[in-house]
Amino acid sequence: MDSPVRIPYESFIKIDRKSDTSIYLQIANQLINAIQRGFLPFGTKLPGTRTFSEMLEIHRNTAVAVYDELSAQGWTESFPNKGTFVIGEDEEKPIKVNDFQHNNLQNYPETTGFLFKTSNILDNPFEHSDCEYVFNDGVPDIRLTQIAQHSRFYSSILKRKSNQKISGHYNHDGSEFFKEHLSRYLNLSRGLPISKNNLLITRSTEMSIYIVSEILLSPGDVVLVAALSYFSVNMIFMKAGVQMVSIPIDEEGIIVENVREACKKQKIRMLYLTPHHHYPTTVALSAQRRLELLELANEYGFIILEDDYDYEFHYDKSPILPLASADTNGMVIYIGSFGKSLAPGFRTGFIVAPENLMAEMRKYLGIIDRQGDILMERALGEMIEEGEINRYLKKSLKVYQERRDYLAVLLKENLENLITFQIPSGGLAIWLEWNVPINLMQLSRGCAQDNLFIPKTLLYQNKNLTAMRMGFGDLNADEMEKSVDVFSNNVKRLIE
């Protein structure tokens, strides 16, 4: 075996003296790395602590701590009057000592040593930009959220001795306190006659739909979606291996007669809907069509997956109650989000379904999100109990309605003859359709050069349609004016 002095330890042990990790641990970890990769094979004798400390320019006590760590972890063994040696299997062809300087032990493998399936279905469709202004999908303005007040709720709960016990326990069923108050809240605000046993708390709408698809869909099942639908949900359905059939929409939402015709042709497993404000067009599904769809579901036995992603945001009149509120035969699964108008960390998703299905869903949630966030759910429950949710929502809705109306004014002033749009009754986005030919990708690139970012996920263009979804929720008056000015100038430049 090579003499310990001949091994160039200083070439592969790098010490970062500004790191929070102690020096002895840095060295020990790098020596273990060298042993694991075969650079210090079985039987290698390490230099004495005095020699080792001089080689690396460290204190001898640090070298002693390194060797103690190696021994404690079972990588080395010391023998009186002989020295410290590497423990392990004797390799037939150990790596030569003179190869040390040509290998960087800090490198992590660039590729796996095994094959695995890849999927382009789940490629991230979201884009990011450093532009100062952004037209987004229709998201709340975090600047309007009372983060300090929300944090006080959470901080108060965290400090209570009564909560210290439950905070250390996993509970994939969620906070019973929160579910109790959320079920009452949904009963009063959305007409859902449910108990806490009909609720599953999730992290997001996407997680909710993933759990539903895992339990209820099998490869080859037929799922009906609107001709224009939410791309993330479509990705989940495609990953499940289902056959998606597009159903046309109009100013009253999805066309029921086309759903009926699809049911006559083949067995339909599920219909996915966003009836409150259809995504992306923002139109509301009429009350008559809601009743007709429930009748069709009962007749043909398909599931209605109702996604109420922005029920909280309505302005002009009381919102139409969900289909789930009128479902008496257990054909509707209702998913939604709660606290969307609050600070991001205070938002959550949920699923409403009959108890027999809920029992199965809890099994899946227990695998993918066993711990949950029981303290945050407790905070949300108290915010419901004290009326904080309603007070804040009432204030924020007034601001969002003013922003919706102002964006409509700006669009009419700048592009009145070029676009068509309806002022939505709720939500945080407006749906625009062009009256003139225009290349939306060119428009997006031109706006980006002028510091306005328009993600491609907002653009809808084919031979029959040229349209986009324009979010207004997170733009104040000044930002809105500048964004619309850039937008309209680029539109006019392209059509001239």
UniProtKB/TrEMBL annotation:
Identify this protein by name.
Answer: PLP-dependent aminotransferase family protein
Q: Which GO terms describe its molecular function?
A: DNA binding; DNA-binding transcription factor activity; pyridoxal phosphate binding; transaminase activity
Task: List the InterPro entries hit by this protein, alphabetically.
Answer: Aminotransferase_I/II_large (IPR004839), HTH_trans_reg/aminotransferase (IPR051446), PyrdxlP-dep_Trfase (IPR015424), PyrdxlP-dep_Trfase_major (IPR015421), Tscrpt_reg_HTH_GntR (IPR000524), WH-like_DNA-bd_sf (IPR036388), WH_DNA-bd_sf (IPR036390)
Q: Which SMART domains match?
A: HTH_GNTR (SM00345)
Question: What are the HTH gntR-type domain coordinates in residue numbering?
Answer: 21-89
For the keyword Transcription, the answer is yes
An example Pfam family from this entry, by short name, is Aminotran_1_2
Which residue ranges does UniProt annotate as crossing the membrane? Answer: none
Q: Which PROSITE patterns match?
A: HTH_GNTR
Do the record's keywords include Transferase? yes
According to its UniProt record, which protein family does this protein belong to? In the C-terminal section; belongs to the class-I pyridoxal-phosphate-dependent aminotransferase family.
**Keywords recorded for this protein, A-Z:** Aminotransferase, DNA-binding, Pyridoxal phosphate, Transcription, Transcription regulation, Transferase
